[in-house]
Amino acid sequence: MMMLSAQDGQEWLTMARHTNRSSLREKLQEEFLSCKICLEPFIRPKALPCLHSFCEACLKDYVRRHPGERPGHFPCPMCRKDTKIPAGGINDFQDNFVLLSLSDTLEEDDVETWNLNHSGSFNQGTTHFSPPKPLAPLTPQEQYLRTYDWYFGKVSRHASEEWLLSPGYPKGTFLIRQGEAAPDTYTLSVRDCDELRGYLVKHYKIHKETNNDGLPCIEYYYITPKRRFRSLQDLVTNYSESPDGLCCKLLQACLKPRSLLWAFERGNPDEFHTERESIVLIKKLGSGQFAEVWLGSWHGSRQVAVKIQKRDAVTTSAFLDESQILKQLQHINVIKLLAVSSETEPIYILTEYMPNGRLSMYLREGKGKDLSVTQLLWIAAQ
After folding, report:
1. Which EC number(s) does UniProt give (predicted)?
2. Could you tell me the pTM of the whole model?
């Protein structure tokens, strides 16, 4: 029987506690501390009367895109309950201080654990800094799976049910998502129909097994051990031909919502990608709720406006959504997107530099207040 020294035993206990704590923290983050609209950690969570909570910015955007049947109302993104908008707007919904407190507690625990691991001790009263946050690159497996229309990546159980239960989908509509227990597990979610309960979604855990007997290693995927497949595509093909024990045959893949398509494209290198080293900040021009705007130099020659994400006010996904919109709005009268630097946080969005500032301020306080009626009409006609 192997004997451990007191020091070794303490190290094993520390590792075990850290593993359990990390697993619990990830579970809490996934189930309770992530907005079900943007699928990112909460930023200023607002609680609805039905007790579902969402990021303030996400809720504002959702209400704008999904107005209710009655004026001044909207359906809850989760339970679809008709919700009245307060007189003061979304801001008047109750802040969810419980979620904020829990999130802060977990974040403090993360910082303390990081400092212990890197300095060996944690001194009260000493200023510590959390590690930098580079955007994690996708694994080759994740990149490959994203090419299939049935793969939805890291989405929650609730979100998958909401999409699959949308009107118009037949029985057998399905998607495959990352398992909530670990990133290397998967779940098959299928729309089914019950005589008593109507349409519902059934979830099947997809197990992954590696055969190390031979070289190279062979991976198998299965829902039941009796039917193993070399890939998720083979699994989908089999259950598309016959139910083979499932609730029904897989008929068609669920359509990806636009928000998820944008999420898949976020941070991907394209013609708008630029390295952080190519940007030099010159002076601060202003600050808004979600970003600071700086005058910058790009590649040492061109003046640009640099919008820098405020990480404590907006999620990376929501901030990058703005760049996704600008990529599609290439018009002479719309401010032009030049580049995006997204390899690390905070995100930088580079646009044309407008030396005269906002049009409204230019017309009220700048040289524009001296323009003639003819000139103003010419501007308005554009």
Report:
1. 2.7.10.2
2. 0.48
- What are the tens digits of pLDDT across the range 21-68? 555 555 555 566 778 888 777 788 888 988 888 888 888 888 888 888
Instruction: Examine the pLDDT at 283 and tell me if it is beyond 80.
Output: yes
Phi then psi for 197, rounded to 5 degrees?
A: -95, -10
- Residues 198-211 have a mean pLDDT of 89
> What's the rounded Cα separation, in Å, for the pair 303 and 205?
52
Q: Output the CA torsion sign for 332, 335, 339, 343.
A: negative
- 208 annotated to bind ligand: no
pLDDT bucket at 5, cuts 50 / 70 / 90: very low
The C-alpha atoms of residue 37 and residue 53 are separated, in whole angstroms, by 10
Instruction: Match 């808004």 to its residue by tokens.
Output: 288
First to last CA, the chain: 84
SS (H, E, C) the chain: CCCCCHHHHHHHHHHHHHHHHHHHHHHHHHHCCECCCCCCECCCEEECCCCCEEEHHHHHHHHHHCCCCCCCEEECCCCCCEEECCCCCHHHCEECHHHHHHHHHHHHHHHHHHHHHHHCCCCCCCCCCCCCCECCCCCHHHHHHCCCCCEEECCCHHHHHHHHCCCCCCCCEEEEEECCCCCCCEEEEEEEEECCCEEEEEEEEEEEEEECCCCCCEEEEECCCCCEECCHHHHHHHHHHCCCCCCCCCCEECCCCHHHHHHHHCCCCCCCECCHHHEEEEEEEEECCCEEEEEEEECCCEEEEEEEECCCCCCHHHHHHHHHHHHHCCCCCCCCEEEEECCECCCEEEEECCCCCCHHHHHHCCHHHHCCHHHHHHHHHC
**How many Å apart are CA 29 and CA 346, to the nearest integer?**
21
| Domains with residue ranges and CATH for the chain | 24-122 (3.30.40.10), 140-255 (3.30.505.10), 266-360 (3.30.200.20)
Q: Cα–Cα distances in Å, from 169 out to 191, 193, 204, 207, 275? A: 8, 11, 19, 27, 43
Label residue 111 by pLDDT band (50, 70, 90): very low
